[in-house]
Structures are given as structure tokens and as C-alpha cells.
């Protein structure tokens, strides 16, 4: 869309809208078709991410036991598993769907209450609107 953007994290409606947290528009009868499409695409992206983490945990089951690992080590452990996964894929050692048996999707912790409006960043609405326009320009999918 002609404007460089930073990376963003995907959040749900309970997170505050920030220029680095992309969240859906609040679902109500006033949403435009474009905003509904944006929300739909955000949900699809979120499900892809959940599936990727499920597959990562199925291949590297040490990630299922991270509760007994130090917080300082956790990012390195996850990164190592991602790198090893890519090495396996590059050397034709594909993911085995049977590994998913016994690996349950886990609900990630999230805030219980929606963030107060005061926590929202006014500039973030411009980022969301730009992304909304971009999704619209991409057509169906």
C-alpha cells in the first residue's frame, strides 16, 4: 500500500489496539463488508499460527513439558525446535501426522477483560485501516 510497516502480533478483541498488536474490529451490526473481511482474515491467520505451534509441539514434544524449564531458556528452546524443524523439512524428513495423536491444542492465556480504551494507541487505527485496505486489495482467499 506504499507505506512500510513494522511487524505486528495478532491479538484478539481483549487486547488493546497498538501499532504492534493487530486486533479485529469489534463485532457489531455497523461493520462494513471490508471490516468483516479483515476480521475473517485475522481469524484465519490466527488459526494458521495455532496449527503451526501444534505441529511444532507434536514434532518436538519437549515443548509439551516447558513448565519445568526456566523462562530464560524458553525462547532459545523454541527457536532451536524451529530451526531443527526446518532442517528436517529441508532434508525430506516431513512431518508425520501420527505425531499429532495425544497432542492437544492448548488455549493460550489471554486477558479476561477487554483492555480499557485508554490503553489503545490512536496511531494503531491507521495501521489496522491500512491492513484492512491491503486485505481488500488482495481479493478473496
UniProtKB/TrEMBL annotation:
Cofactors demanded by this protein: a divalent metal cation
Location, primary (coarse class): nucleus
Any GO MF annotation of the entry: hydrolase activity
Keyword entries, A-Z: Hydrolase, Metal-binding, Nuclease, Nucleus
Compartment list: Nucleus
Database matches in InterPro entries: HARBI1-like, HARBI1_dom
Location of the DDE Tnp4 domain: 5-86
Pfam families found in the cross-reference section: DDE_Tnp_4
One cellular-component annotation, GO: nucleus
Record family assignment: Belongs to the HARBI1 family.
Identification of the protein by name: ALP1 protein
Phylogenetic lineage: Eukaryota, Metazoa, Chordata, Craniata, Vertebrata
Amino acid at each position: 500500500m506504499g507505506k512500510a510497516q513494522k511487524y505486528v502480533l495478532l491479538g484478539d478483541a481483549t487486547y488493546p489496539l497498538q501499532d504492534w498488536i493487530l486486533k479485529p474490529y469489534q463485532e457489531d451490526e455497523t461493520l462494513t463488508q471490508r471490516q468483516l473481511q479483515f476480521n475473517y482474515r485475522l481469524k484465519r491467520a490466527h488459526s494458521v499460527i495455532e496449527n503451526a505451534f501444534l505441529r511444532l509441539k507434536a514434532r518436538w514434544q519437549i515443548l509439551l513439558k516447558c513448565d519445568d524449564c526456566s523462562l530464560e531458556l524458553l525462547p532459545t528452546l523454541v527457536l532451536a525446535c524451529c530451526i531443527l524443524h526446518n532442517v528436517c523439512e529441508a532434508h525430506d524428513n516431513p512431518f508425520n501426522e501420527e505425531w499429532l495423536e495425544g497432542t492437544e491444542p492448548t488455549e493460550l492465556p489471554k486477558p479476561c477483560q477487554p483492555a480499557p480504551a485508554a490503553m489503545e494507541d490512536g496511531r494503531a487505527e491507521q495501521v489496522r485501516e491500512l491492513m484492512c485496505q491491503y486485505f481488500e486489495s488482495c481479493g478473496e482467499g
